[in-house]
Design brief:
Number of domains: 1
Oligomer: single chain
Strand content: 5-15%
Length: 394
């Protein structure tokens, strides 16, 4: 996070409100009139078109390593999210085997069991429940906590820390929020160091134990990197999946023809989840630091500038997606960028897809009359787009 981006901009600033509530009209304007532009409020270049976003995500001149412009003390070690090769390659290699499609497929029975239990409890109270609170949030938290080896009784402990750290990913962050993010980061790191110490004494069959073993064998993974790695996996392992399930179900509820078709043709579940990821992606933008002068979309951008590829805009580019504002669960091919592209393609994409498919598929199958039962509430964030509440009735 750049120092220039820690500013006390009012949360009711029109641009921030539009990004939070419904950024797609703004994206439509940017795609047509200003696909690459310098945004003075964000103090960054926004990139909207699919082709240009792909360039930013895959061209090594656009660096993911923003630690050089981070406030003092923000990073104690580089995570995969903010590193370039060779560090990124080394760090990603250590954990990617846990998230291959084959490994994730082995988790399907356990994920289905968690979804069934959560839905049993949610439907036990007359069929009215909050889809975010009762399903979309607890499911990925339980899954990633079990995968890492975080004790069940501690899952609630890192919820507030995670939410605060996720909010700090926005391009504009108040000094108060950043202070709370540092406090949450330090608390989470202290907690994780305790878990790591326990795994040194008593290894288990979980990912933290496996990473500890790697760290103890040599200098491939230093302990500060281990702590940051676990932090990233805990947060990224559930924050985006919460939004995938919440945003996806809201889109289906607002498009009853598509919901009915998915109910009648459950074999469309896989393509439906891909379309929901495209239509209202859980991550709306990411950031890159430009290493050298480039020409992009007819604009000259100088080295040292911060660039924001707008994933949500790219997913609605009519040059790439016919009728981009139409929800079509049969859309195929569907080369969306909801999980990014290039070397930073989301490590947890296979897990998020499976969790989304099982959660959404189970809801559609078990709740024949699922409908909105109040007004959805958006989270006060723009980078991670999601809901804090989605009241429904079955």
């Amino acid at each position: 996070m750049s120092k220039s981006m820690i500013r006390d901009v009012p949360r009711d600033h029109p641009l921030l409100v539009q990004f939070r509530e419904d950024p797609y009209p703004l994206y439509k304007y940017l795609l047509a009139a200003a696909p690459v532009q310098r945004n003075e409020l964000l103090e960054a270049w926004t990139v909207a078109r699919y082709a240009d976003v792909m360039t930013v995500l895959t061209d090594p001149r656009f660096s993911a390593d923003r630690t050089s412009i981070s406030p003092d003390g923000y990073e104690v070690a580089k995570s995969m999210l903010v590193s370039d090769p060779p560090d990124h390659t080394r760090l990603r290699t250590l954990v990617q085997k846990a998230f291959t499609p084959r490994m994730v497929d082995q988790l399907r029975p356990r994920i289905q069991g968690i979804v069934d239990d959560l839905l049993d409890r949610a439907l036990a109270n007359g069929g009215e429940f909050d889809l975010v609170e009762d399903l979309a949030y607890p499911l990925p938290v339980i899954v990633i906590a079990e995968l890492l080896g975080v004790p069940a009784e501690d899952r609630a402990t890192f919820h507030d820390w995670s939410a605060t750290l996720a909010a700090s990913l926005d391009p504009l962050v108040s000094s108060d929020l950043m202070d709370r993010a540092w406090t949450s980061r330090d608390a989470l790191h202290t907690y994780l160091r305790g878990i790591i110490a326990e795994r040194r004494r008593t290894p288990k069959s979980d990912l933290i134990s496996a990473l500890v073993a790697v760290e103890e064998r040599g200098d491939t993974l230093r302990e500060p990197e281990l702590v940051v790695m676990c932090t990233l996996l805990l947060i990224a392992g559930h924050e985006t999946t919460v939004n995938l399930i919440g945003n996806g179900m809201l889109a289906l509820l607002r498009h009853p023809d598509q919901l009915a078709r998915l109910r009648d043709e459950p074999q469309l579940l896989s393509t439906a989840v891909e379309e929901l990821l495209r239509f209202d992606p859980p991550v709306q933008m990411t950031g890159r630091l430009l290493l050298e002068d480039v020409q992009l979309g007819g604009q000259s951008i100088e080295a040292g500038e911060f660039v924001l590829p707008l994933l949500g805009a790219a997913n609605h580019d009519p040059a790439q997606f016919p009728e981009p504002d139409k929800l079509d669960i049969t859309r195929n091919p569907n080369p969306h960028v909801a999980f990014g592209r290039g070397i930073h393609f989301c490590l947890g994409a296979p897990l998020a897809r499976v969790e989304g498919q099982i959660a959404i598929g189970s809801l559609v199958k078990r709740c024949a009359n699922l409908r909105l039962n109040g007004d959805p509430k958006r989270r006060d964030q723009i980078t991670l787009r999601g809901l804090s509440s989605l009241p429904v009735a079955a």
